[in-house]
Design a protein that fits this description.
- There is one protein chain.
- The protein is α/β, with parallel strands linked by helices.
- The protein has 2 domains: about 240 residues, Aspartate Aminotransferase, domain 2, CATH 3.40.640.10; about 140 residues, Alpha-Beta Complex (Aspartate Aminotransferase, domain 1), CATH 3.90.1150.10.
- Helices cover about 35% and strands about 15% of the residues.
- It is built from 14 helices and 12 strands.
- Strands 1-7-6-5-4-2-3 form a 7-stranded mixed sheet, sandwiched between helices. It has a 5-stranded mixed sheet with strand order 8-9-12-11-10, covered by helices on one side.
- Helix 4 packs parallel to helix 5.
- Pyridoxal-5'-phosphate binds next to helix 4.
Length: about 400
């Protein structure tokens, strides 16, 4: 992959995000790379591009940037996070076993159950935050160990280093969905994982205006599989989306810092409120960098900051929780996360609506649970919004 030869070898995340993956400047002088809206390339051209399904200059720019940010040798970009997941899953074959963390992103669960099973792949689930379940890895010898940390939506933290070591001792491949953490806060490959997956729709792009996915790896063999999947299964993004995500990645560090500081501040204030009880009370708060988080120490070790996602349960009924959400003015109720604008979601009526109440409550998705994707607005405005909505104003 082509890197800027003028870039110091030890340049940091913030600098690499802006300077790595900016090809074609030497030929044209353009400070920002153009969008290559072309489906095909002249045969025999010196760049090696032939058809956009199997590669495009805008893909190469973004792949270069993301590989650098994840400390990876390789990166392949896809049309969405789910396309990136598909690329990994369709590298498996009938008879293979996946051992997955049980609390994973709903659409990952759906493709495991509704698609992959039909192709003869076995999927087993376990609580991989509990080290007494690590033994399952040696027992099942899975082709793939599927991790997500923090998990969506319940913010459970998994020990990527310990799980990777356990998986490698029996020759299993480890994939980590790094979407909730972001490339700035967590580098799964440095912790021992083989594949780090991003829905670049979220923090990488950061502006809720495009969809994308990426898989980063240090393995030449897996890189070949990813490039093959991009072209053979047709999982490629559009050049325009790749360009937008390249633009977004340049500000990932500053955005993430604000997402994290805002979320931590709101988490602390909600926790203070919980201690006080009474009107506008809070039943529980969940944020990886609160000392009350069950895996606080691991989160501190594994992540540079707590991220922009925050959970709270105000002890309200299903209907009252929805009414609270409707009273919020700055948090828009919507799926997705990781954009500059604050969003709010009610897992019980949105992502987990199809799951029976008892099953969902046992998993921690209570009627009163609210998921905040904390944006980069002024934290006092966000706090006032929550406070006012709780006061029923
Ligand atoms: C959103 C999300 C995905 C899927 O990404 P899309 O870009 O929506 O396809 C995968 N994993 C996690 C953890 C997500 O939050």
């Amino acid at each position: 992959m082509k890197e800027d030869p003028t870039l110091p070898a030890d340049a940091r995340f913030e600098t690499r995000a802006i300077h790595v993956g900016q090809d074609y400047r030497s030929e044209t002088g353009a400070v920002i790379p153009p969008i290559y809206m072309t489906s095909t390339f002249e045969t025999g051209n010196p760049t090696g591009f032939d058809y956009t399904r199997s590669g495009n200059p805008n893909f190469r720019n973004l792949q270069c940037t993301l590989a650098s940010l994840e400390n990876a040798k390789h990166c392949t970009v896809f049309a969405s996070g789910l396309s990136a997941i598909s690329a990994i899953l369709f590298s498996l074959k009938a008879g293979d076993v996946i051992l997955s963390e049980q609390q994973i992103y709903g659409c990952t669960y759906r493709i495991f159950e509704k698609v992959l099973r039909r192709f003869g792949v076995t999927i087993k689930y376990a609580n991989l935050a509990n080290s007494s379940n690590y033994g399952l890895i040696a027992q099942l010898k899975p082709a793939l160990v599927w991790l997500e940390s923090p998990t969506n939506p319940l913010l459970k933290i998994l020990d990527i280093k310990a799980l990777s070591a356990a998986a490698h001792s029996v020759g299993s491949i480890v994939a980590v969905d790094n979407t909730f953490a972001s490339s700035l806060l967590q580098q799964p490959l440095d912790l021992g994982a083989d594949l780090s997956l991003l829905s670049t729709t979220k923090y990488t792009n950061g502006h809720s205006d495009s969809l994308g996915g990426a898989v980063c790896t240090n393995s030449d063999e897996w890189q070949e599989k990813m490039i093959f999947a991009q072209k053979a299964i047709g999982l490629q993004p559009s050049p325009f989306d790749a360009w937008l995500i390249s633009r977004g990645a340049k500000t990932e560090a500053v955005r993430m810092e604000r997402h994290c500081s805002n979320a931590l501040e709101l988490a602390k204030r909600l926790e203070e409120r919980k201690a006080r009880k009474g009107r506008k009370s809070v039943r529980s708060v969940n944020y990886p960098f609160l000392t009350s988080h069950p895996q606080y120490k691991l989160a501190k070790k594994q992540m540079k900051a707590g991220g922009g996602m925050l959970l709270a349960d105000f002890g309200l009924s299903y209907g009252d929780t929805l009414a609270f959400i409707r009273r919020l003015r700055l948090f828009t109720q919507a799926e997705s996360l990781g954009g500059i604008e604050s969003l709010v979601a009610h897992p019980a009526s949105m992502t987990h609506a199809s799951i029976p109440k008892e099953t969902r409550e046992a998993a921690g998705v209570t009627d009163g649970l609210v998921r905040f994707s904390v944006g980069i607005e002024h934290v006092e405005d966000l706090w006032e919004d929550i406070d006012r909505a709780l006061a029923k104003k």
